[in-house]
Prior knowledge:
CATH superfamily of the largest domain: Alanine racemase
Mean pLDDT: 93
Shape: globular
Structural class: alpha/beta
CATH topology of the largest domain: TIM Barrel
Number of helices: 12
CATH class of the largest domain: Alpha Beta
Strand content: 25-35%
Radius of gyration: 23 Å
CATH architecture of the largest domain: Alpha-Beta Barrel
Amino acid sequence: MPFTYDEDGLLCADGHPTSELAQKFGTPLYVYSADGFLAHLAAFQQAVAPVNGKVHFAVKANANLALLSLMAQQGAGADIVSGGEMQRALAAGIAPQDIVFSGVGKTDDEIRLALAKNIGQINAESPEEIKHIEAIASEWGLKAPVAIRVNPDIDAKSHEKISTGQKSTKFGIPIATGEAEAVYDYIHNSPHLVARGLAVHIGSQLTDLAPFKAAYQTLIALADGFRAKGYDVPILDLGGGLGIDYHGEETPDFAAYGALVSSLFSGLDYQLGFEPGRSIAADNGILLTSALYTKASEEKDFIIVDAAMNDLLRPTLYEAYHRIEPIQQSNRAKRLSDIVGPVCETGDYLARGRDFPSVESGEVVAVFNAGAYGSVMASNYNTRAMPAEILIHQGEVHLIKPRKTIEDLLNDEHNPFAE
């Protein structure tokens, strides 16, 4: 594990005392372990090695250029959901053919960029989107590589805001109504589209493999049916969604997932795509934050820290749990506490109702499992500068995203009315 306590009870990040990192770089501060990222990536790649597949890291989980570059060097492609993420992936050195462009709302400019950059696969999610892709490809005299994301109407039993496989969501083209078959028929017969296959993604933070199995069995049946009609279905894109243990220290069970995939796809002539994000990133990042004050009430303490909902949105957005501990272990008495930020919102909290030790002003606290959907969802709400990010790689600490100053934020705007 990259984040462990030493013999003196001090939290270290790949051997570096977090107290020193916080002092040098300030807080709030994201700290990533490159070795941890690469170890998880290698474990995932090994787990799915028995099948013919390609791993594309989900950039939406953590978009830092340094991390993307390191994973690209180890053979990872990228799963992207915007033109901005496309340009990030390309800037990080990921080959265009190793990029999968997902998402329900691609603009014409983003489609043009994908075609201009020769992106390997565009996952389309509606007939209307396919017509836009076709029109642009026709205009340019090209054949666009299109897979369709299907909706199998499977409840992944995850949080409603990250569950994407049911017919009630905006994602994918329905299978049960016959629409997916009609759309694939259209692609197959279009002179300006190349059918790349089928894609599915039923949600995020799945710790039960049963929904994966159901979705993949549905995908196989659909693909086999298309092939029986003479359609080319080279790729089955299995998406991502493998969950992690936010409450403890268990690593994602890549081996069990790989065994499931092997049991279903071994011997089948499909190239598979995988888009892990959270399972690679989450365990390998922490957020360091400093205590400002403790405000006591009759019911509980409010431990006010310098990190807020604009720095880590997940607890506010999803009621998500993150383990939070002082970086210095002790035998201090604990009291029911909310760990909250300075933002002027009741919803601004990192944790609620925790038995938490008393902390002094200036003491540093660590928020664990913050390597995924942390910095990428951060904002400058309340004109607060977003956290800096550092990466530890082979023992060396790198500042990979400096903290902007308030002057930087003000200079990003143009005020025609200033005197």
